[in-house]
Structure prediction request, 265 residues.
Amino acid sequence: MGSGSAANIARGAHATNLVITKQPEEETPGEVYRSRSRKKLLFAFLIITLVLIILAPGIFYFFINYTPYGYREKVMYNYGFTAKARNYLRSETTVDVMNLSEKKPFGFTHSGYWKPGSKNVKLNTASDEVAIHEFAHAWWETLRVDPKTKKALVDDTIKLSNITDKVYYQAVKRAQWVVHTYCSCSDTELVDYEKVDDHHFYAFMADFTMGKFKTGTHKLPEFMWKYFDGLFSNNLKIAPCYETKSCYFPDNNDYSCIPTYKALL
Ligand SMILES: [Zn+2]
Prediction:
């Protein structure tokens, strides 16, 4: 056993020598450089990703609250714009807001501006009422291309202005005002559609509903829904201003519930 063990130890030692002497192939200086570069790049990528993850909530907060495009996202979300309308406004139009920190409208016009064909919505302030009005202009621009749709909106608004169902009291009042102001017709039986300001038939009805056009006190009768179905989902995340009596434009408020509403006008 003694001599056998000695032989085994000798064989083991020999085998160990073989393993030790088999050195791995050494990397060339070029490979070492490339390997280090890859590690540095990966490290930098990880650091940037980590920084972005840490800053993401802040960037999102800044975008939503301090940029015109963030404000537009907020309006579209709060008032339930359809996915189709959101995508259209994002991809086909630009938006400017002069004073984002002010909610109250100001200016000689409706505190905003949409010039047909301009693809740009200009807002003087971050007024939701004005924003919806101007976004509605931008959306109607695509619908009015079809002369039948344009004519049908005018005809249906005139029809709405004549209905006597008290359930639609507010909508009828708005329709009467729109027809009176933008039809340019003394007789609604003889309408010259070339003279009608159909853009304001649409935009003023849109800001009247603030996106809630199927339910509530500013709901429209069903024959009007087809014009607003593409723009609004009727699924709002906030209460429209007329429900909280907080609209800046008095005629947007649900003043049938305020006995002294005339004092506001
Ligand atoms: Zn307008």
About this structure: The chain has one domain: 68-262. The longest helix spans residues 29-66.
